[in-house]
Every structure is written in C-alpha cells, then in structure tokens.
Amino acid sequence: MPLSAIPQPEIIEINENLRLRRYDGHYERFLPPYQNPYVYQNSEGIFDDAKKPDLDYVKRMCSYLDRTGEFYYIEAKENDTYICIGDLTAYIWNLPSQKMHESLGFRQVSQTERELIYELTL
C-alpha cells in the first residue's frame, strides 16, 4: 500500500545490477531467501531451524508489510535476469527503525519534513 499522496513507482533502479520492484502479491518469491539460515536468524530472530519461515509465515509477513508502507522486492541481476534476494518496506520512520538501519551501516544523508533519506554504500 503506497504512503498517502506519494505515488509508488513500479521499479526503482539502484544501479545496473540492483533494483527495487513494487510488490505484486507473489509472496512465494520470498520463500527461498527466508529459508536461508543467515536471513531468518538475522532478519527474523529465528534461531530454531525447526521454526524457519514456511510459506504461510512469508504470506502473513508480506501481507503485513504491504499494509504498512511501500513494499518492494529487492532484485539482483544474475545472468541478465533479475532474481529476488530480499525485500524492503518504506514507511514512516520511528526511532527503533532508525537505530536498526544505522547499526546496519545506513547513513542518513538528508531529511525533510516528511522523510529521512538514508544511503548504504555497497
């Protein structure tokens, strides 16, 4: 769901090998990345392999994120084809989210009345 009065673009090009693509309801694309132990341990805080995310978990997560803000697939180019490697949700920032992103290496580069702009150097 787009943020009010802010149009959600279909694709946001990051560079020639990385882009964001607006979520289109196909939550099953997130299952392979979310079954990677590195992802479910560090992103979801799940450390019991028996409880790793299944398709129902991913569906509920995507539904929540889509209702919360602008929800995108993170896609990387591999052999001239883009594959889903994760997700991103743009939403109204709160202090815990700011601190989490800053701890991951994002750096605030500007701020307006309505938004914070963060940058991550890869």
Give structural attributes.
122 residues; alpha+beta; 4 helices; 6 strands; 27% helix; globular
Structure, explained:
The chain is α+β, with helices and mostly antiparallel strands and 122 residues long. Helix content is 27%, strand content 31%. It is built from 4 helices and 6 strands. The strands form 2 sheets. It has a 4-stranded antiparallel β-sheet with strand order 1-2-3-4. Strands 5-6 form a two-stranded antiparallel sheet. Strand 5 and strand 6 (116-119) form a beta hairpin. The longest helix has 14 residues, at 55-68. The two termini are 28 Å apart. The mean pLDDT is 87.
How many β strands by DSSP?
6
Helix-residue proportion: 25-40%
For the sheet with most strands, the description reads: 4 strands, antiparallel
| Global structural class | alpha+beta
Uncertain ranges: none
Order of helices and strands: EEHHHEEHEE
